[in-house]
Design a protein that fits this description.
Structural class: mainly beta
Number of helices: 1
Largest sheet: 5 strands, mixed
CATH superfamily: Cupredoxins -  blue copper proteins
CATH topology: Immunoglobulin-like
Order of helices and strands: EEEEEHEEEEEEEEEEEEEEEEEEEE
Helix content: under 10%
CATH class: Mainly Beta
Number of strands: 25
Strand order of the largest sheet: 11-17-16-13-14
Oligomer: single chain
Radius of gyration: 19 Å
Number of domains: 1
Length: 252
């Protein structure tokens, strides 16, 4: 990673307060935090995405890449669903994020970061990748990475909460998503569709499950599949002090 992030601590009574992870959010200890766990399952008719053709650098990338729009695991668990809490104003420190161009796909395919948290884009391949992020059709970052193991910090670009669609201008088969949130209380479901969010200040919250969408509605000018808008589900939950609560979602 890039050089160590400087951390300034201000002592207020017995409370250690850290720098802001995002405007309006304060990082501080959560001694009585609770935990939210759950599952995102698919209850509709599964759609098998067609392989996406590779049109450049096939000697490195291969001839096709599988669609990652809808990935189902055991018991129809949905991978790559972002689950996040709204309205958390103070709590744990935000993790850093690295978005890699590796084997001609973005890794991870879906990620989430708190605004202001250290974020960088990397190229693990021996070919040029151009990582281009759009939020509401407006460019947020546009990073050319011609060299293997090159990395560029984009932290300052990720200030506005929302979903960023990420494309590679050099390889039309590549696509990913980065969600920017106001606080670090989020998770991305694993291969089984499970998630876990810890150190939550006790209270009642709106919990949102975000999925990129999987129904193909057409092709863009470069031949990329165009998908339906992302799917959003939400529920209310009360997180107990030092306890655990379960919340499940179904996508159809």
């Amino acid at each position: 990673m890039a050089g160590p992030r400087s951390v300034r601590r201000v002592l207020v009574g017995a409370l250690v307060v850290f720098p802001l992870a995002a405007p309006g959010y304060v990082e501080a200890p959560v001694p009585d935090g609770g935990t939210l766990v759950g599952h995102v399952r698919f209850a509709g008719e599964a759609v098998q995405g067609e392989p996406i053709p590779v049109r450049k650098n096939a000697d490195v990338c291969g001839g096709t890449k599988p669609s990652e729009a809808l990935l189902l695991g055991p018991e129809r668990g949905v991978k790559n669903t972002v689950v996040y809490l709204e309205g958390v104003e103070r709590g744990k420190r935000a993790p850093e994020l690295e978005l890699d161009n590796a084997q001609c796909v973005f890794v991870p395919h879906v990620s989430v970061v708190a605004a202001g948290a250290r974020t960088r884009v990397k190229n693990a391949d021996p070919i040029l990748h151009n990582t281009h992020g759009f939020q509401d059709r407006v460019t947020v970052f546009n990073v050319a990475l011609p060299n293997k193991d090159q990395a560029v910090d984009i932290t300052a670009r990720l200030r506005k909460p929302g979903a960023i669609e990420v494309l590679c201008d050099a390889h039309t088969h590549m696509r990913a998503w980065v969600l920017v949130r106001e606080n670090p209380y989020f998770a991305v479901t694993d291969e089984s569709g499970q998630f876990r969010i810890a150190e939550i200040p006790p209270g009642r919250y709106r919990v949102v499950a975000w999925h990129e969408g999987w129904v193909v509605t057409g092709r863009d000018k470069d031949g990329r599949p165009v998908y339906e808008p992302p799917r959003l589900l939400s529920q209310e939950v009360t997180v107990p002090a030092r306890g655990e609560v379960t919340l499940n979602f179904e996508l159809r």
